[in-house]
């Protein structure tokens, strides 16, 4: 199958021109390896998994995302129409999550309208509903700043209606912040000279986004949380255990990430970016234990993440030289890791589907 050739999912709006970065996915081989994870020896005292091994020269200046062909994960079909009603407390509306958007504003608006969250004019119409974005608003797609503007506006409109619209920090938010703040300043990548500007361009950075990026966008991104727990769901952007490096509670992780960004040290922000770029920790042997290490530390019964496109988790994308033009079809979230992990990146940058899903799932 040729990467970037999937048909769009239902309700994704008019097709837009795909960027030339769609086939530029690379990460070091170590990301595909699930390390051994140990269980805690004392109740309530969870030992974190051993630090995932970085090759001596690892740097995310390599193109992100490998081309894989694996058959060791199972797709769990979820019918959004039959999802169980959320167990919310009095006064709270249903809970929804949104996967990676990557600048595809039209698809986002269509998907939110399909779920009854936006009206025909694109305004919040969901009352007390609660909406969480899992990060990665920009890069690769045509209108990342438009996406951020929409999310910021919906945050105000939802709050006025008694609901909320909130967002998590993705690795591409860190990348855009770094490219704007540090540009071509060399950083300590462990593999020679690296810069945020080069990494941003290599991973789908759009000049139109940079040209329109303003101070209020930067301030908004820099204040985003990295991790939250809602209704028994631990929400994160990346399918990695790297969050454990930044604290033993949700509050500590979020504070540490914000403080790192505020200090404005290029090397520190780069280290944060490269750790949040790691992926596939919950896949393969040991993946369920990796999920449990996060759940035992931060709470929740399931983890919900974006970052790694479902077609890659499922092995439905072949090599770049594959002449098979059949398109992987993404109908909904992917449940894996002994049912403990829910993947929400439907691969919109690969002509997949931008996923908006009500939680909890009925599996």
TrEMBL record:
Matching Pfam families: Metallophos
Against InterPro entries, the record matches this protein to: Calcineurin-like_PHP, Metallo-depent_PP-like, Ser/Thr-sp_prot-phosphatase
Domain of life according to the entry:
Bacteria
Span of domain Calcineurin-like phosphoesterase: 94-310
* Gene Ontology terms, MF aspect: hydrolase activity
Query: What PANTHER family does the entry give?
Result: SHEWANELLA-LIKE PROTEIN PHOSPHATASE 1
Q: What protein name applies here?
A: Serine/threonine protein phosphatase
Query: What is the phylogenetic placement of the source species in the record?
Result: Bacteria, Bacillati, Actinomycetota, Actinomycetes, Kitasatosporales
């Amino acid at each position: 199958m040729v990467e970037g050739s999937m048909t769009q999912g239902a309700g994704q709006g008019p097709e837009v021109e795909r960027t030339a970065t769609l086939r530029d996915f690379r990460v070091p081989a170590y990301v595909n390896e699930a390390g051994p994870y140990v269980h805690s020896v004392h109740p309530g005292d969870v030992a974190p998994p051993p630090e995932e091994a970085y090759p001596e020269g690892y740097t995310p200046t390599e193109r992100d995302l490998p081309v894989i062909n694996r058959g060791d994960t199972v797709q769990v079909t979820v019918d959004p129409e039959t999802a169980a009603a959320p167990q919310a407390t009095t006064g709270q509306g249903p809970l929804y999550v949104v996967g990676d958007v990557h600048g595809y504003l039209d698809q986002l608006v269509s998907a939110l309208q399909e779920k009854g969250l936006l009206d025909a004019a694109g305004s919040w119409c969901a009352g007390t509903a609660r909406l969480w974005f899992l990060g990665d608003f920009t890069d690769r797609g045509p209108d990342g700043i438009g996406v951020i503007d929409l999310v910021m506006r919906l945050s105000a409109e939802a709050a006025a209606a008694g609901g909320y619209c909130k967002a998590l920090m993705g690795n591409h938010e860190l990348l855009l912040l770094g490219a704007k703040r540090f540009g071509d300043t060399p950083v300590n990548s462990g593999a020679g000279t690296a810069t945020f500007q080069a990494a941003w361009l290599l991973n789908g950075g759009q000049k139109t986004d940079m040209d329109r990026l303003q101070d209020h966008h930067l301030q908004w991104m820099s204040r985003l949380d990295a991790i939250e727990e809602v209704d028994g769901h631990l929400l994160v952007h990346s399918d990695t255990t790297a969050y454990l490096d930044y604290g033993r509670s949700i509050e500590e992780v979020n504070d540490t990430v914000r403080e790192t960004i505020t200090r404005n040290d290029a090397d520190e922000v780069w280290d944060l970016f490269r750790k949040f770029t790691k992926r596939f920790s919950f896949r393969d042997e040991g993946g369920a234990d990796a999920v449990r290490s996060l759940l035992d530390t931060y709470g929740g019964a399931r983890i919900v993440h974006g970052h790694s496109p479902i077609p890659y988790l499922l092995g439905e994308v072949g090599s770049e030289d594959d002449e098979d033009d059949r398109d992987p079809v993404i109908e909904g979230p992917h449940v894996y890791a002994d049912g403990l992990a829910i993947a929400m990146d439907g691969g919109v940058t690969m002509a997949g589907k931008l996923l908006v899903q009500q939680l909890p799932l009925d599996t």
